[in-house]
Design brief:
CATH class of the largest domain: Alpha Beta
Strand content: 5-15%
Bound molecules: phosphoric acid mono(formamide)ester, norvaline
Largest sheet: 5 strands, parallel
CATH topology of the largest domain: Rossmann fold
Radius of gyration: 19 Å
Distance between the termini: 19 Å
Number of helices: 12
């Protein structure tokens, strides 16, 4: 059954219902199949997506630009450095002006509040392409990828290792809660999940039965996992903390020794970019269990679904 997504913002996955999230997966599946069989799908002819970036990006920038183009529309890359935002124009004014030209905005920036404000003042859909708090496009893609591999999400067990208090872990909690996926987080002291995020995710999990656990010992955490997930230890904007983070998170490195404790049928995932030799070794990233490049490819298909449904 189709649910309404037209005109909707994607600020965090908390804002979307389980049905709306499944609508994205089903649409992404169709779009991917059409692309693989050479059938064009161009529902966004004549539409323009503005893409604001305050932080670097490889996947998000390229996949969104290719996505809007292949859907029949046009993508406009807007470096925040070159917008009047840098010289003090407000987010609210920017939102209202851009709404007169564009049909949708994708934004990657530091402060989550800026995306909330943009969404509030814009009259067109605003999509969060990563903030310090959340990365919903990545997690939609990750869940779609897990669904493709396992045929379901409900009851899947994911172990997330490393920085339990970053944008990826926050969004994974929000996403898991919506689809009934169990999530065990294994992180060192000082990098445990945010209590407020956990509380919000637990509220949403009541409807789906998703279970969340914390296990500080990575060797204990990994047993029984279907999916082993990690992210960089130092996120964009945290560069000054790098030394302390490297030291604290070393025991959480996903290496061959740790993977030997996991089921042979489990898969390894990483949102990328990977800092090989830190959170993951080459041995794991390039192993047969690793699905990191399928995951990266799916950014294109999942985001096409988000654009086609919201714009
Ligand atoms: N995973 C992800 O968002 O990658 P980029 O930073 O390259 O966009
Ligand atoms: N946590 C990482 C994710 C990168 C896609 C960061 O914010 O740098």
């Amino acid at each position: 059954m189709a649910v309404k997504l037209k005109g909707k913002d994607l600020v965090t996955l908390r804002d979307w219902s389980t049905e709306q999230i499944w609508q994205v997966f089903k649409t992404a599946e169709m779009i991917k199949q059409m692309q693989y069989t050479g059938q064009p799908y161009q529902p966004l002819k004549g539409k323009t997506l503005g893409m604001i970036f305050t932080k670097p990006s490889t996947r998000t920038r390229v996949s969104f630009e290719v996505a809007i183009y292949q859907l029949g529309g046009h993508g406009l890359f807007l470096s925040a450095q070159e917008l009047q935002l840098r010289r003090g124009e407000t987010v609210a004014d920017t939102a209202q002006v851009l709404s007169r030209y564009l049909d949708g905005i994708m934004i990657r920036t530091y402060a989550h509040k800026d995306v909330e404000d943009l969404a509030e003042y814009a009259s067109i859909p605003v999509i969060n392409g990563l903030t310090d708090y959340a990365h919903p496009c990545q997690v939609l893609t990750d869940l779609f990828t897990i669904y493709e591999k396992f045929g379901r999400l409900d009851g899947i067990n994911m172990v997330y290792l490393g920085d339990g208090n970053n944008n990826m872990c926050n969004s994974m909690l929000f996403g898991a809660a919506k689809v009934g996926m169990n999530l065990t987080i294994s992180a060192p002291e000082g990098y445990e999940p945010d209590a407020e995020v956990l509380k919000l995710a637990r509220e949403d999990a009541k409807a789906t039965g998703a279970k969340f656990a914390f296990e500080s010992d990575p060797q204990k955490a990994i047993g029984g996992a279907d999916v082993i997930y990690t992210d960089v230890w130092t996120s964009m904007g945290q560069e000054e903390e790098k030394e302390a983070r490297l030291k604290a998170m070393q025991p959480y490195q996903v290496n061959g020794e740790l993977m030997n404790l996991a089921d042979a049928s489990s898969v390894f995932m990483h949102c990328l970019p990977a800092h090989r030799g830190e959170e993951v070794t080459d041995e794991v990233a390039d192993s047969v269990q690793s699905i990191i490049f399928d995951q990266a490819e799916n950014r294109l298909h999942a985001q096409k679904a988000v654009l086609a449904l919201t714009m």
